[in-house]
């Protein structure tokens, strides 16, 4: 599994010192850096992007996290207050895709006050001390969060619930009076449409994590090729953990997709 970090600095120059430090730590194999962006909290409360994350699969996680932070804490009033409904939904969706909890967003909101600048990154690390020490020396405050897969689990739960609902409605249709069949059939069609949408969501999610995991493993392999001794061994352990995490998540989504197809075909 990987982590997100948000390192809050008092100025642009300190934040860019932070980006250089992250790249140095990656080169030293103290951690593996996947994606990175720089954002600032303006005087009016807006979050502006000073350095966008690189395009491609490695940047998907940080891109979603930055989008979520802009949507949820980038309004003039901060948090959810003052945001349009569309911005709120976009922020929540991005945060769900990023895989972070509400308390992490709240911690970032508390620390990233107007005038401050933050480096947002996704990485793998074995120890927290190398990063913390380097960032503290520059004047940065580190906020960490494991990147979770609760979105994958939510997709599976949703499909299981819809599968049960479709089965129950079909049983009700078979037993209901003729004059009520049309209404029950409409309910079945609605539930199946939601099931189709959930299946598409599972398939899209699986494609995304496949691309991300493949890109991360390649990045780790390139880093391992330049490392020696204990550093190399630790990177190889990260590769093993990354593959195991991907397989677990992929199996979860594939099983959910199979359930959805079975429910639609029944």
Give an overview of the whole structure:
The chain has 266 residues and is an alpha+beta fold. It folds into two domains: 3-148, no CATH class; 151-265, no CATH class. The chain is 66% helix and 14% strand. It has eight helices and five strands. The protein has helices at 12-27, 60-73, 85-98, 102-111, 129-138, 150-175, 178-226, 229-265, and strands at residues 3-9, 31-41, 47-51, 117-125, 141-146. The chain has a five-stranded antiparallel sheet, sandwiched between helices. Strand 2 and strand 3 form a beta hairpin. Helix 2 (60-73) packs antiparallel against helix 3, helix 6 runs antiparallel to helix 7 and helix 7 (178-226) packs antiparallel against helix 8 (229-265). It is elongated and about 75 Å long. The two termini are 37 Å apart.
Précis, in short:
The chain folds into 2 domains: 3-148, no CATH class; 151-265, no CATH class. The chain contains 8 helices and 5 strands. It has helices at 12-27, 60-73, 85-98, 102-111, 129-138, 150-175, 178-226, 229-265; strands spanning 3-9, 31-41, 47-51, 117-125, 141-146.
- Using the alpha-carbon principal axes, give the shape: elongated
Poorly predicted residue ranges: 76-90
H/E topology pattern:
EHEEHHHEHEHHH
Number of domains: 2
In DSSP terms (H or I, runs of 4 or more residues), the helix count works out at 8
């Amino acid at each position: 599994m990987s982590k997100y970090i948000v390192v809050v600095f008092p100025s642009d120059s300190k934040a860019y010192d932070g980006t250089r430090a992250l790249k140095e730590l990656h080169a030293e194999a103290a951690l593996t850096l996947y994606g990175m962006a720089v954002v600032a909290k303006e005087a009016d409360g807006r979050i502006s992007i000073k350095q966008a994350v690189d395009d491609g699969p490695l940047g998907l996680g940080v891109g979603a996290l930055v989008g979520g932070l802009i949507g949820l804490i980038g309004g003039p009033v901060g948090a959810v207050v003052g945001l349009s409904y569309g911005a709120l939904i976009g922020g929540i969706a991005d945060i769900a895709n990023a895989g972070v909890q509400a308390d992490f967003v709240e911690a970032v909101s508390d620390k990233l006050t107007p005038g401050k600048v933050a480096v947002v990154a996704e990485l793998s690390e074995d120890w927290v001390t190398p990063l913390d020490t380097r960032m503290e020396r520059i004047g940065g405050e580190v906020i960490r969060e494991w990147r979770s897969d609760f979105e994958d689990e939510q997709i599976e739960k949703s499909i299981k619930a819809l599968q049960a609902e479709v089965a129950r409605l079909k049983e009700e249709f078979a037993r209901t009076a003729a004059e009520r069949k049309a209404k029950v059939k409409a309910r079945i069609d609605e539930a199946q449409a939601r099931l189709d949408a959930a299946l598409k969501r599972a398939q899209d999610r699986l494609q995304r994590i496949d691309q991300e995991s493949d890109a991360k493993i390649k990045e780790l392999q390139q880093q391992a090729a330049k490392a020696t001794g204990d550093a190399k061994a630790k990177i190889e352990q990260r590769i093993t953990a990354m593959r195991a995490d991907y397989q677990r998540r992929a199996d979860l989504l594939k099983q959910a997709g199979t359930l959805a197809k079975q429910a639609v075909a029944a």
